[in-house]
Design goal:
α7 (about 120-125) packs antiparallel against α14 (about 380-399), α9 (about 150-170) packs parallel to α10 and α12 packs across α14 (about 380-399). By secondary structure, the protein is α/β, with parallel strands linked by helices. It is built from 14 helices and 13 strands. β5 and β6 (about 190-195) form a beta hairpin. The protein is elongated. The protein folds into two domains: about 5-100, no CATH class; about 110-395, Aminopeptidase. The longest helix has 20 residues, at about 225-245. The strands form three sheets. Strands 5-6-8-7-9-12 form a six-stranded mixed β-sheet, sandwiched between helices. The structure holds para-iodo-D-phenylalanine hydroxamic acid and zinc ion. Zinc ion (ZN) binds near residues 229, 262, 290, 291 and 339.
Length: about 400
């Protein structure tokens, strides 16, 4: 936004100070989102010419004396500051719509545009998060005897996750839910909402859906796994619910994942991340939610620094500051490849792992029959902070 504002501002200076630019001809290039382009054309009439649209952006020529009026119109009707970008040349406008400038993020070593400017969309979405939805899903998931990767219980629980996610997006034709099958019993579950403008760019939010008792597990042991990791799956479920209920239609492709077999060596996520890498998928951001509902530290959300992307971690911290009021965050280390973010990181994708507490303050009941939501006083107020953060992550990366 700041950049766009300066584009307009410096243009105003140019108009004020330079006769030359006017003598060279009054037509000027701008780029503008497709949804606003028609509106701008209607507002300006014959003095605007739509040239070409690519990747959801339109390049058009307008008369420079119309710029203040267009600027006012965009602010008024689209709540955008500026809302369009002024270009010095046709070539520069073309580079913008063709994605050439997007590739400049890559040149800077970045996977995505980490500017924060979607307040109008993120704020109302964050308001919709209800912790009672999250706690209800945790209760359902902990009621399976276990969610072990090689037991029928672990298959039954994934059938539940798949049906639940299907019901949330039942009214949409841009969404589908599928099993990702593995060589063991339990499948992973993947919900895809296809992007309308840049479907090749993919944003992933996931967590592991399996549970285990002790470090050696067993298909018959009780493993409620409420915090580890019914909390993460239930947080993802609430993010999907809010996006669906707010009728959010992404420009990029969103994928929500419930991984199988994390507890036995990150096996489900490893197969998925490797397959996407082999397929050449352009995954621009991954968030892992593993243990979100035990409020054990002075910090609310702790970004793990190992096997993660530090720029994306800082971006998520900024999102918390901007959108998750009163929530504190900081950094710590797992010290090993502690969850599925490591599968994505190892495949070369930018991953983050915002965690429920500092490592030394984490829930000590995990991998036992005591890992139930009663440890968190039967509520999901801590996990709700993570749902808000994840919504901000999805929407800001998408736009
Ligand atoms: C885990 C362990 C330590 C930390 I710090 C963060 C995450 C992983 C735990 N959720 C798990 O899945 N153990 O198998
Ligand atoms: Zn876990």
């Amino acid at each position: 936004m700041t950049l766009k504002f300066f584009a307009i501002f410096s243009l105003a200076l140019q108009i004020g100070n330079s006769q030359a630019s006017i003598e060279e001809g009054k037509a000027r290039w701008i780029t503008i989102d497709n949804d606003a382009a028609d509106h701008a054309k209607a507002h300006l009439g014959k003095s605007a010419k739509i040239h070409k649209s690519m990747n959801g952006i339109t390049m058009m020529q307008i008369h420079e004396e119309d710029i203040p009026s267009l600027s006012h119109e965009m602010h008024h009707d689209f709540n955008r500051c500026g809302g369009f970008v002024f270009h010095d040349s046709e070539e520069e406008a073309l580079a913008t719509i063709s994605g050439e400038s997007k590739r400049s993020f890559a040149k800077k070593g970045l996977f995505a545009d980490y500017n924060i400017n979607q307040q109008d969309v993120v704020r109302p979405a964050v308001e919709m998060v209800k912790d009672s939805n999250i706690s209800a899903t945790i209760e359902k998931l902990q009621s399976f005897h276990n969610r072990y990767y090689e037991s029928q219980h672990g298959v039954d629980s994934q059938n539940f996750v798949k049906s639940k996610w299907e019901s949330l997006v039942a009214k949409r034709n841009d969404a589908s839910v599928e099993f990702f099958k593995h060589s063991w019993k339990q499948p992973s579950v993947i919900l895809t909402i296809k992007g309308s403008e840049s479907p090749d760019e993919v944003i992933v939010v996931g967590g592991h859906a399996d549970s285990i008792a002790g470090w050696f597990g067993g298909a018959n042991s009780r493993a409620p796994g409420a915090d580890d990791n019914a909390s993460g799956i239930s947080t993802v479920t609430e993010v999907i619910r809010v996006l669906a209920d707010s009728n959010y239609h992404p420009k990029k492709t969103l994928k929500f994942m419930g991984y199988a077999a994390e507890e036995v060596g990150l096996r489900g996520s490893k197969e998925i991340a490797q397959k996407m890498k082999t397929d050449g998928a352009n995954v621009i951001g991954v968030m892992q939610l593993d243990m979100t509902n035990f409020n054990g530290s002075d910090l609310d959300i702790v970004m793990m620094t190992d096997y993660t992307n530090s720029t994306q971690n800082a971006f998520i911290g900024n999102l918390i500051d901007e959108y998750v009021t009163g929530v504190s965050w900081g950094y710590d280390k797992c010290g090993y490849a502690c969850s599925d973010h490591a599968s994505w990181h190892n495949a070369g994708y930018p991953a983050s792992m915002p965690f429920e507490a500092k490592k030394r303050d984490m829930n000590s009941n995990i991998h036992t029959a005591r890992d139930t939501i009663s440890v968190s006083r039967n509520n999901a107020s801590h996990a709700a902070k993570f749902a808000k953060m994840a919504l901000a992550f999805v929407i800001e990366l998408d736009r």
